[in-house]
From TrEMBL:
PANTHER family: ACID PHOSPHATASE RELATED, PURPLE ACID PHOSPHATASE 13. This is Purple acid phosphatase. GO terms for molecular function: acid phosphatase activity; metal ion binding; structural constituent of ribosome. Coiled coil: none annotated. Its EC number is 3.1.3.2. Belongs to the metallophosphoesterase superfamily. Purple acid phosphatase family. Residues 351-563 form the Calcineurin-like phosphoesterase domain.
Length: 705
């Protein structure tokens, strides 16, 4: 207890004077803190520079493979030292911010947190694997204390050195909860951040192999017209959702006979308890076909696809439902969903999962498992869904779109991959609403230039409610957030229907009701990876000014199979009022990971190969200003790129209030709750004002037809 008091007193001394410390005093405090012999020096890089004028940086990040080589006691000591380093860094950060000075090493905080999480993971593994049950129980009890509870609750009875270290950890954690927990995560106010590239971690790479048709998770497990592939999607406002499903099996072959949608009813029974589904809604149904009138190619026709809109729902309310046709005893099991909060600056969904380029590989299953474990209220899928177009009609696959079957008379698809995807995803998206926007892999060209048939048929969209009248772009509200789902593969120039609709939609947003505006589309404008580098430049030229003028806060994209987060940026220049652009094309698809960066020697793409014809032509000329002036690529990681990493994963967005939102990116190879990249995105309406407009049509459910 004496040790705890002394240590707590010493740490409090640093925090108590944070408001009056100067930068010089902070450096002097750092010097005092490291003036004595450090018995744990062996854990750290011994050749680090001893410069008294710089903040203390004890060490480096630790990989799980390194930590597994250390003893139980050494891991506890290392966790303690990392916590001390984290506390110290946070104290320095607060001191500098109080003087409007930039924190010099913001990248250290996430590295320390990651190492601490990995230590906890390794210690937990040791406790679980311990063969002595009594010892295992003691280890688990010790583990739970510093990470989750305070010492009085645990009732420590051991006086071993390891336990004393843990006790000291508990007390210091409790004492500094206000200073550490409140400020341990960086925010956009700390930026712009120095660009960071996380080296490729090859030890966690799995093969990007698709689930086979024989996998039980993708096989049809119903008969007749019993519903399958059930999903929920949002309407434009909280009081309405769409329920979608498929009845009857698909057909594939040279000769097919489409099912008649009129043979089965489209009905949903629903209520607020699973025993009283007293409300009934009816909808519409359709069948689509993917036809390839060439010798040897197989045609496809879908099962009957149903879409039913439920209206008059209460906000933030759980509803139970069954879908199908009761007249022929073809009803689903009872499922449930929860509506979004009403549009208000004070109400938001708790967690929004954002993922792109998902596909249906074993990596996909890891992504979906991680995503589901985070209990999202809403899922945004920013394009590239099933990757059915990486297959011939007979089911033969390829590893990339551009190398797939050059001798075929038309770019083929294997449409059953869509059905496999819907079956695999049903356990999640039958209860969590999913909102989808198209990617290039949804194009699926048929004869007579028919495109996006499967994408447009299988999902329900609030196209009519948001007045876009298109499945390729639309908008909706979720609490105090207005979402824009834009199309990269349909006209976006200033005279296009999409651009005109976007201009009207943005003008109608009332930031007093929906303070946050979040945009998504598939192909990123700001990406430093060689893959698809500056491919969407024409869309950027056409729309960036409009988004900037209306103060769009965040943009999420896919297409590039890696993770990248930008600083606030506008027109390639750092701008405190620009959006934060985040690429999450790392869902796990068959085309594997994007690794090379355009700024690395030999990786800058040839401008002549950059245009994608379906993206609208070539606009990506050499830069005319800035560090890359006269060049097509930067010669280093661009200033706009704050963080990039080639790993599969997903992101979680948690909007806390009208000015603060927490973004967390999770790697598949980490524990479910471990953050890979984390940042508070902070709105500054007083610095970046957006004139409040009249109340949007989406903000008033009573006006909905």
């Amino acid at each position: 207890m004496l040790l705890a008091r002394l240590f707590g007193r010493r740490l409090f001394a640093a925090a108590a004077h944070s408001e009056t410390y100067s930068t010089t005093a902070a450096a002097a405090g750092a010097t005092t803190a490291r003036s004595g012999h450090n018995p744990l020096e062996e854990f750290f890089e011994k050749d680090r520079i001893q410069d008294d004028d710089k903040p203390i940086v004890y060490g480096r990040s630790w990989k799980a493979s390194e930590l597994r080589l250390k003893s139980w006691d050494d891991l506890q000591k290392l966790w303690y030292v990392l916590l001390k380093e984290k506390n110290m860094l946070m104290t320095q950060r607060q001191m500098l911010h109080s003087q409007n000075l930039r924190f010099p090493n913001p990248e250290r905080l996430p590295k320390v947190r990651k190492s601490m999480c990995r230590i906890k993971q390794v210690l937990t593994e040791r406790a679980i694997e311990e063969p002595d049950q009594r010892r295992s129980a003691e280890m688990k009890r010790m583990l739970s204390s510093p990470f989750h509870k305070s010492s009085p609750e645990m009732g420590f009875i051991s006086s071993s050195p390891a336990t004393l270290v843990l006790l000291l950890l508990v007390i210091s954690s409790c004492c500094f909860s206000s200073t550490i927990d409140a400020g341990g995560i960086p925010s956009t106010l700390d930026g712009p951040f120095k660009p960071v590239t996380i080296p490729l971690d090859t030890s966690f790479r799995g093969n990007a192999v698709d689930l086979p048709p024989t996998d039980p998770r993708v096989q049809r497990n119903v008969t007749g017209f019993v519903p399958e592939q059930i999903s929920v999607s949002l309407s434009a406002t909280h009081d309405s959702v769409w329920i979608s499903w498929i009845t009857g099996d698909f057909q594939i072959g040279e000769e097919i006979q489409p099912l008649d949608p009129k043979t089965v009813a489209s009905m949903v029974k629903y209520g607020t308890t699973n025993s009283s589904l007293n409300n009934v809604a009816n909808g519409n149904s359709l069948v689509y076909s993917q036809l390839y009138p060439f010798e040897g190619l197989q045609n496809y026709t879908s099962g009957i696809i149903h879409h039913v809109r439920l209206q008059g729902l209460n906000p933030s309310t759980t509803y139970f439902y069954q879908c199908g046709d009761p007249s022929i005893s073809a009803m689903s099991d009872v499922h449930s969903f929860t509506t979004m909060p009403a549009s208000s600056s004070q109400s938001y969904p708790t967690r929004i999962a954002i993922v792109g380029d998902l596909g249906l590989t074993y990596n996909t299953t890891s992504t979906v498992d991680h995503m589901a474990s985070n209990n999202p209220d809403l899922i945004l899928l920013v394009g590239d869904v099933s990757y059915a177009n990486l297959y011939l009609t007979n089911g033969t696959g390829a590893d990339c779109y551009t190398c797939a079957f050059p001798d075929s008379p038309i770019h083929e698809t294997h449409q059953p991959r869509w059905d496999y995807w819907g079956r695999y995803m049903q356990p999640v998206i039958s209860r969590v609403p999913i909102m989808v926007i198209e990617g290039n892999h949804e194009l699926e060209t048929q004869v007579k230039k028919k495109v996006f048939e499967s994408y447009s048929a299988r999902f329900a969209f609030p196209s009519e409610e948001s007045k876009s009248h298109s499945t390729m772009y639309y908008s909706f509200n979720a609490g105090g957030i207005h979402f824009l789902m834009l199309g990269s593969y349909i006209g976006y120039h200033k005279k296009s229907h999409q651009h005109k609709w976007l201009k009207k939609d943005l003008a109608s947003v009332d930031r007093k009701v929906t303070p946050w505006v979040v945009a998504t589309w598939h192909a990123p404008w700001y990406s430093s990876y060689a893959a698809h580098y500056r491919e969407a430049e024409c869309m950027k030229v056409a729309m960036e000014d409009l988004l900037y003028k209306h103060g769009v806060d965040m943009v999420f994209n896919g297409h590039v199979h890696a993770y990248e987060r930008s600083n606030r940026v506008y027109n390639y220049e750092l701008d405190p009022c620009g959006p934060v652009y985040i690429t999450v094309g790392d869902g796990g698809n068959r085309e594997k990971m994007a690794i090379p960066h355009a700024d690395e020697p030999g990786n800058c793409p040839d401008p002549a190969t950059t245009p994608d014809q379906i993206m609208g032509g070539f606009c990506a000329f050499n830069f005319t200003s800035g560090p890359a002036k006269g060049s097509f690529c930067w010669d280093r990681q661009p200033d706009y790129s704050a963080y990039r990493e080639s790993s599969f994963g997903h992101g979680i967005l948690e909007v806390k209030n009208e000015t603060h939102a927490l973004w967390t990116w999770h790697r598949n190879q980490d524990m479910y709750s471990s953050p890979g990249d984390q940042l508070y995105i902070v709105r500054q309406p007083e610095k970046c004002p957006v004139k409040a407009k009249r109340r949007s049509r989406l903000d008033n459910p009573k006006n909905q037809s």
